[in-house]
Amino acid sequence: MSVKVVAEKDILVPDVDKRQYRYLTLPNKLNVLVVSDDSADKCAACCCVEVGSMQDPAEAQGLAHFLEHMLFMGTEKYPEENEYSAYLNSHGGYSNAYTDSEQTVYYFDVLNDHFEGALDRFASFFTCPLFTESSTDREINAVDSENSKNLQSDVWRKYQLFKSMARPDHPINSFSTGNKETLGDAPKAAGSNIRDMMIAFYKKYYSANLMSVVIYGNSSLDELQKWAVEKFSGIPNHDFPRCTYPSDPFRVEQLQKVVEIVPVRDTRNVELYFPMPPTESLYRSKPEKLLAHLIGHESDGSILAALKKRMWANELSSYMYRSSHDFGVFGVEIKLTEEGLIHVQDVIAAVFAYVGLLQRQGIDDWVWDELKDTGAMKFRFKDKSEPSDDAVSLATTMAVMAPTEILAGHDLFFEKNLEKTRELLANVNPDNALVFLVHKGVAEKADKRERWYTTPYTERAFTTEERAHWQRVLSGNDDDNLWSTDLHLPQPNPFVPTDFTIKGSDVATEAKFPLGGGCH
To answer: For 220-253, b where at least 16 C-beta lie within 10 A, e where not — what string?
Structure first.
């Protein structure tokens, strides 16, 4: 089987982008995007593996992350530990990696003249790693140190608590970083060898058909393709199917709760989470972006404008908090004032009152059209990022987006599907809600500790009165609705440009205003 050029001239590219692109599939079913940029100061590469922490075995939590660390510890071709990092450091380069719930991502950049050498070392991670016995304990300690660094981070603490709220038998309810206990003590106590478990994990999931590689350099497309074939064709292909997960991490038993959390920093947030169907494959219509825009806009009549009017909030953001192939969770986060914390039940009611308006009045076509136009403008004039940032962004979307649309898929709205947005909107209701309330005032009554970060918190079910009030507000049947006059749907923005034609004008040969003058 030969190398297949899947896309090249038909890849959608911004008007201002002068780079060249070629999308390849190697004989081992590895998808590779090569990017030629003759103006680049640095070259970069990224490999995204479609497996992450949700595939960790329960008896070795953090295994995918531990594997990520161990790949840096030498290969058969370059056996010296940290040789890869040393090579990059000595040639103006940098490397990093991270383990997400469904992906593990490796990337680097380096000065142009040393790209092939760096790429060869990088590719050997996936063709001939050593996984030496001598580095095993050291890397467990490195993982443990990394975890210790995160223990006082409110972002990490809240995310781990969020995961622990999911149903106990769902893979998201796990400790993805790992530490000495989960990677050292627990496997030993069970009679397991963590190195053997890690190698088995690598052999099973690190298959070429589950990987995407981006090679970004200042050489020609043909030269970059040649390197791709030479260096990455040796990655074994096991034709392993993409990992799938249950679509319902949160069932009714896990929802309709208020979880009050003691933060490290002095912050006041209320955060509403709503489990939803997955939207990753819907990038052509982007129903979740339309929903986030409608709930999160800040103009007159918005949730935030109404809350600011009462001086109850400073910021509001809405977004897909977790986006998976198999499930999603939509989030609405509101940064509260001290007064807003006192009236937090009414703040939550404002969200449901606005959602009820959307459901009753409907979503107009012009909203999607406006997002389409702003997305097109953003893509048309999209700035270049750093080579490594572009490499990561592209590699992590290759498994989802069509080859011709991997550059445009984040920005362009290809298909109108308002019905899908309405379906997502139906999930924003009190019966499908998990509420996090983050503030220092809960410290004295926080009677629980999260298992891995020891975050203090307390939880309770919605009261009958809360749930009934929010349901009435949502349905528009609340006679005491505080928000009835403050909320309304947004109006069209008449200033979104759609015509970028440069028009001629009658310009006088003499300057209308003197040039180079000053004030006298």
So the answer is: ebeebbebbbebbbebebeeeeebebeeebbeee
